[in-house]
């Protein structure tokens, strides 16, 4: 049993649901339906889903700004309906849009935000310096927000959310639009927070991010839970361990597809997915599948990789674009 599992629950939701009232002449809209979730100190929980899956609604309920209409929810053992201010005082929130004060400096953004929590000036000054160092913004401490790059703004937004030393940090797509270096630095800071005992709840469209940061993930679709568990558990339960990607020239694509289907019909324990530009063959042994296929048809390029959380997500929610 991990140390996280011995920690008391910070968040406990059972049968959690949210239904928005019907508009004129319309029906009520169920945004979240029957969701169960738990969160302990030092854990990171990922909420994954297509647009409209209910992630943002769930985050608003957890942040005690939108009360659930069904089920039960306790945050720090408190009822969000009656104890919203007490809950919010112990949370940090990182919205998808930075919402920083553009005319203030980095340091001033931290100090001014901290005043909303009634912190003494001396405490705020000390805490701001510590958070500036944590966010690796020492060289920009007295620069206005307009002088910061996108990655710097995200780090400042996270630092600002930590001013009140929250026990839970809610992050809505924290690295959207960042370059790989900025994402890696942000991941490092979030892992440091986890190691210090801060619990994280993260929504993200980056499956590699969820694999890196999250101890457990919940995959949602149309407001309901589709699957939940650790990234490794979900990969083991829903997809085969390896994926062989095959690419053919335009005229050979159909022949390659036919060859793979023949091998499967002959007993090869694979799963085939046909995409316009490539074939994906899920297998327990990708290299063995590669040898057997290439003995019948030669692709323009082939690659064996391990199965990922993205393979699980697409297997459970499909590849159709959801607006």
UniProtKB/TrEMBL annotation:
<keyword id="KW-0813">Transport</keyword>
<dbReference type="Pfam" id="PF00005">
    <property type="entry name" value="ABC_tran"/>
</dbReference>
<dbReference type="InterPro" id="IPR027417">
    <property type="entry name" value="P-loop_NTPase"/>
</dbReference>
<dbReference type="InterPro" id="IPR003439">
    <property type="entry name" value="ABC_transporter-like_ATP-bd"/>
</dbReference>
<dbReference type="InterPro" id="IPR017871">
    <property type="entry name" value="ABC_transporter-like_CS"/>
</dbReference>
<dbReference type="GO" id="GO:0005524">
    <property type="term" value="F:ATP binding"/>
</dbReference>
<keyword id="KW-0046">Antibiotic resistance</keyword>
<dbReference type="InterPro" id="IPR003593">
    <property type="entry name" value="AAA+_ATPase"/>
</dbReference>
<comment type="similarity">
    <text>Belongs to the ABC transporter superfamily.</text>
</comment>
<dbReference type="GO" id="GO:0005886">
    <property type="term" value="C:plasma membrane"/>
</dbReference>
<dbReference type="InterPro" id="IPR050763">
    <property type="entry name" value="ABC_transporter_ATP-binding"/>
</dbReference>
<feature type="region of interest" description="Disordered">
    <location>
        <begin position="1"/>
        <end position="22"/>
    </location>
</feature>
<feature type="domain" description="ABC transporter">
    <location>
        <begin position="11"/>
        <end position="247"/>
    </location>
</feature>
<keyword id="KW-0547">Nucleotide-binding</keyword>
<keyword id="KW-0067">ATP-binding</keyword>
<dbReference type="GO" id="GO:0016887">
    <property type="term" value="F:ATP hydrolysis activity"/>
</dbReference>
<protein>
    <submittedName>
        <fullName>ABC transporter</fullName>
    </submittedName>
</protein>
<dbReference type="GO" id="GO:0046677">
    <property type="term" value="P:response to antibiotic"/>
</dbReference>
């Amino acid at each position: 049993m991990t140390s996280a599992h011995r920690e008391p629950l910070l968040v406990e939701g059972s049968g959690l649901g949210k239904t928005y009232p019907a508009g004129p002449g319309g029906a009520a809209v169920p945004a979240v339906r029957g969701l169960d979730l738990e969160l302990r100190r030092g854990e990171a929980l990922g909420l994954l889903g297509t647009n409209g899956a209910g992630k943002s609604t769930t985050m608003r309920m957890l942040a005690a700004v939108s009360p659930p209409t069904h089920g039960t929810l306790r945050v720090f053992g408190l009822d969000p309906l009656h104890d919203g201010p007490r809950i919010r005082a112990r949370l940090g929130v990182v919205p998808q849009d930075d919402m920083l004060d553009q005319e203030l400096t980095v340091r001033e953004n931290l100090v001014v935000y901290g005043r909303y929590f009634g912190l003494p000036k001396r405490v705020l000054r000390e805490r701001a310096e510590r958070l500036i160092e944590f966010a690796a913004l020492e060289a920009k401490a007295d620069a206005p927000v307009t002088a910061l790059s996108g990655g710097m703004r995200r780090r400042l937004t996270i630092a600002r959310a930590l001013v009140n030393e929250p026990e839970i940090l809610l992050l809505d797509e924290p690295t959207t639009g960042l370059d790989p270096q900025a994402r890696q630095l942000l991941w490092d800071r979030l892992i440091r927070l986890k190691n210090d005992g801060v619990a994280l709840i993260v929504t993200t469209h980056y499956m590699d991010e969820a694999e890196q940061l999250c101890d457990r993930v919940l995959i949602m679709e149309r407001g309901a839970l589709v699957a939940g568990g650790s990234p490794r558990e979900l990969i083991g339960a829903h997809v085969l361990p390896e994926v062989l990607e095959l690419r053919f020239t335009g005229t050979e694509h159909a022949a390659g597809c036919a060859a793979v289907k023949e091998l499967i019909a002959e007993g090869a324990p694979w799963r085939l997915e046909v995409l316009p530009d490539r074939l994906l063959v899920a297998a327990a042994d990708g290299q063995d599948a590669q040898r057997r296929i290439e003995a019948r048809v030669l692709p323009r390029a082939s690659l064996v990789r391990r199965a990922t959380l993205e393979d699980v997500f697409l297997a459970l929610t499909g590849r159709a674009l959801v607006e």
